Amino acid sequence: MSTIQEEIAKRRTFAIISHPDAGKTTLTEKLLLFGGAIQTAGAVKSNKIKKTATSDFMEIEKQRGISVATSVMTFEYNNLLINILDTPGHKDFAEDTYRTLTAVDSVILVIDCVKGVEEQTERLMEVCRMRDTPVIVFINKMDREGQNPFDLLDELEQKLNLKVRPLTWPVNGGATFKGVYHLLEKQMYFFKVNKTKVEDDVALLELDSEELDLKVGTRDADQLREDVELIDGVYDQFNREDYLSGKVAPVFFGSAVNNFGVRELLEAFCQISPLPIARQTNVRVVEPMEKNFTGFIFKIHANIDPRHRDRIAFLRVCSGTFERGKFYHHTRLDKNVRFSNPYSFLASAKEVIDEGFPGDVIGLYDTGTFKIGDTLTEGEKLLYAGIPSFSPEIFKELINLDPMKSKQLEKGVQQLTDEGVAQLFTLQPGNRKVVGTVGELQFEVIQYRLEHEYGAKCRWVQMNTTRACWITSEDPKKLQEFIRLKGTQIGYDKDNNPVFLADSEWMLRMNRDNNPDIQFHTTSEFK
Ligand code: G4P
């Protein structure tokens, strides 16, 4: 039997992130093909919220239901057990993605070479930077006429506040794309339109060799030499430690749909990506090698079948060995719980497992005991830090349409917001409930689910609020005074933290300027 050290050394847990349409699904699928986890191209598509479904939330929920099975995709490659945690591409579910990012050890960021850095990429990278998550960049769609690669790298550095280091370099792009030169291996990978096969056309070519001229043509060979000289002059040598500490992101170029550049990416990932890492709790840093099991819930997925209210909680194992049927301590509720049917997501089929190791994600059936961020231990009182909430963008007050069903409504809203569908703020006096989301879709989802799962009817009243900022102060009296003065502009989040609800950026700035003793935080995660 292998030791826990060996199990940890084998695991790599990461997420692929991108702005929708950059090629995340395609790249995921190609990686799974390499790992033999799927046999045919197209198999991952069902995991994707289709573009045509953007206005039909029930369709989206259905698709999200299907995607539970593929929320974690595990495959083996080079003797490693690789877990890809899927993140929904749809903007309205961005919060889901932020939370998933707390459960990974590294990410691969996909950029469309035509569009460059897009809006959602910036938000996602903000989350990665909060935890110094190591990032590998894959610049995709090189078969299309894209931007100049140096310009793309500059854009990455500026917009994402991220230092980059190319490890492969494209020879041309678009219709004349010839392939990529691997700067460390000194090999030229020749591009072929190749949608299914996985073999490569590779040649070991020194930059100053005549053979390079023969293979790619003198003009392109000279351009490549010039580019490489510039790269060596501008960028520091690649250093794994800098990547692991989130300081530098290596960059690869390719074309996922043509299966090109994917193998180099995967090989590099296997060599440099981090093993399950140590994690911060409210008490101390927990090392994965520790004997005792600890883990946290980063995602909860409701059963979309209204007859079954049970949910699936996704547990990330952080240390020790998780065992089936053993009692663990639920630190927030201060009670012991155990799970008789925990399952893994291996081969996309649910499979009951007896044990789990750091890096693993385990599905637990939940009847309402879990909230996102909950921690399980063998008794130690600690909570994993850092499941951030971001300021929502749309705020609506929830109005109960059936006074006889207030209790159901209350319970439904509590549970749905525990799941992380949206954020709940309570306004006093009157216990008014304000729901904040990043997309309109969630309001429809909540309204539908309240009615069908909890039998409660509601309607929404749009609020003027556009920003929510968590407020703190060194001086509790000043904070109380601010809260008193602002009255209805103050709400309380689920953990009873005060939040300032601002109608505009201008109003927020004014309040900031006028109240230097109050700190305004745009995420719930602050020190
Ligand atoms: P996402 O998950 O990031 O949203 O993107 P997805 O992989 O679905 O890719 C978005 C579109 O980009 C797809 O086309 C996909 O085929 C295409 N694509 C992915 N990689 C490449 C590439 O290297 N080169 C080119 N030219 N296109 C690429 P679609 O038309 O939206 O879907 P489909 O009908 O082709 O599946």
Automatic annotation (TrEMBL):
Belongs to the TRAFAC class translation factor GTPase superfamily. Classic translation factor GTPase family. PrfC subfamily. GO terms for molecular function: GTP binding; GTPase activity; translation release factor activity, codon nonspecific; translation release factor activity, codon specific. The keyword rRNA processing does not apply. Increases the formation of ribosomal termination complexes and stimulates activities of RF-1 and RF-2. It binds guanine nucleotides and has strong preference for UGA stop codons. It may interact directly with the ribosome. The stimulation of RF-1 and RF-2 is significantly reduced by GTP and GDP, but not by GMP. GTP binds at residues 18-25, 86-90, 140-143. InterPro entries: EF-G-like_DII, EFG_III/V, G_TR_CS, P-loop_NTPase, PrfC, RF3_C, RF3_dom_3_sf, RF3_GTP-bd. This is Peptide chain release factor 3. It is found in: Cytoplasm. Its main location: cytoplasm. The gene is prfC. It holds the Pfam family RF3_C. It comes from the Bacteria.
